[in-house]
Amino acid sequence: MSEHARPAPVAAPFWTPGVLVLLFLMINAGFFIVARYIGGLAAVTHLSQTRPWGLWIGIDVATGVALAAGGFTTAALAHIFGRHHYEAVTRPALLTAMLGYTFVAIGLVIDIGRSWAIWKPLVFWQPNSVLFEVAMCVVIYLHVLYIEFIPVVAERFGDRIRILAVLNRILDKTMWIFIIAGVVLSCMHQSGLGSLMLIAPTKVHPLWYTPLLPLLFLLSAIAVGYPMVIFETTIATASLKLEDEMEVLSPLSRITIGLLGIYLALKIGDMVVRGTYVYLADGSSESISFLVEIIFGVIVPWILLMCPAVRRSRRWLFITCAMIVGGVALNRINVFLVAFNTPYAEQSYFPSIGEISITAGLIAGIIFMYRIAVTYLPVISARRREVTS
Amino acid sequence: MELSRRGFFKVMGASGAALAATPGKAKATWKSKAPPDAYGCLVDLGRCIGCRKCELACNKVNGLPEPEKPFDDVTVFNQRRRPDDKAFTVVNRYYTGRTDERNQPKPTFVKVQCMHCQDPACASACITGALHKNENGAVTWNPAKCIGCRYCMVACPFQIPAYEYSNPITPRVRKCTFCFDRISEEGGTPGCAAICPVEAITFGRRSELLKLAHQRIKRDPVNYVQHVYGEKEVGGTSWLYISQVPFEKIDSYNMPTRQIPKLTETIQHTIFSYLWAPITLFGILGGAMWTLNRQQITGKSGPGKEKEDRS
Description:
heterodimer; A: 14 helices; B: alpha+beta; two-stranded antiparallel sheet; 10 helices
């Protein structure tokens, strides 16, 4: 971190209108969560016997995990592959990943029918189950993320809370184990999430159902890692009136060209080999959703990224990265919701107000916690701009 | 981040040793876990008269709630029904264009319940093993293990497990149990098979039932479709159907003959046997970390000075 400013708490006013909106969304979700524990899932969701997984699994869990990939991809880049230039973004990415996975866990607790039984997979192992593997990796990875975050907290509160300082000293020597473990665990469960729907060959639309789904999930998670970091860093630096950090973000986006290209090549190649392009022109909601996903979520931003002017422009880089983030989010929603059709379904699924409210509340919760963390902990390296326009 | 050189080698050595102990790329030949001598039921749709006695028996045997319409009400046939959390089996009526001797449309009645797959997707998917294929063929659900993730419902190709969505704390996965307790007793039969007045449901060993099914369709090739549904579908099911109308006309969909769990279990066990893949990845990343950060670890300047990349 030689040439960069050290991370420091951001001295920006906390109670802004945006924060109040977040608070409102969280309180609103709170009401629906209470309703869910009084009337059951039926009271707040549109889930049914033919639609067991809905918005919460599609967005809170699948998309949440994918978009938290910035944590392990930046850690790999800066700490494992020795590109220390990028250390300025590792802490915000780590924070996002930690909060993201925490809220994945909260979302899952709300979604499963027997919330109080969430610990049972730790005792009753079922290694044939993809979900078991994903759950174990997520649980361990969540702890790895907390451990990786200890030095950040210790840096601020180490002199006041002795245990933090002690832990920090131990981690000084052992942190590399957790950094590598974090990357390994991420690769395992990112791909595992893709294997989940392979258990339903008769229900998942052929445009998405491929034995390569785990690999595609892994590659898209790796590809979305840096765009997500750019996306959130740009929002954070803009709303907190900080320096834009373009000297880190521009080169990050250049790496993305290759990563996104590999994902695109495999996705198109898989479609050609399996001959599923025949479904593209049938005008169904699935084919439209697939086309939007691959054109506006992958191809267009990939081409945009190849222009140096786009990579240097803060506005265009943000737009491009937002498209990539949206593309991967849409991919997860497509695989878990749009592609899923059971032959006996009587009606199509659209999420209820309750489902949308809780999902919005959870996302608001992540942003709210991020806001608190950067205010009190040394996470962000960018300095506040002296002159605000 | 500071790295201790000794600590680094200690752990890398340990993972290297674990890697060496791994028998190369573990071979993963998937094997069916179907019980060798499972029970089954043969449903002869050519015999079923749609009396719904099986629904009644099922309701009583399993202590299910009283239905909205009584079991002798035939208006329920006006819409296609599915088994749910309050009824483990239902009978549906189909008009497929067949007519009887007086030129009246002739209905086909189809009983629906869990097929008790030989290699059930639900049991393979279940995160805790709450769903289980028993030796006697029944696929049963264990409330002590279930967490309510509903992955079984995603997995089941026949859309059978049903959920008690209105229960906020202890919802159950509800499905036909193959009357596990009854058939575990000597001479016991499932409630539906025992009550059927026209012997449309035959209970017995699956292997015997397959022979019986083929006998019946061979004996009456004019009327019967030459197909035993459940013999090969999803690798075989404990419940078997023979019919006088094509199966796709009675919502018994074309199913792959491959066992549903085969693909995911093969992927899982190829990657995770002895954890060889994660350990290898850990080793490679550790090696990369050591090589690329040598300067920082040893404190000496090494070769390959880091290059700054520019956009």
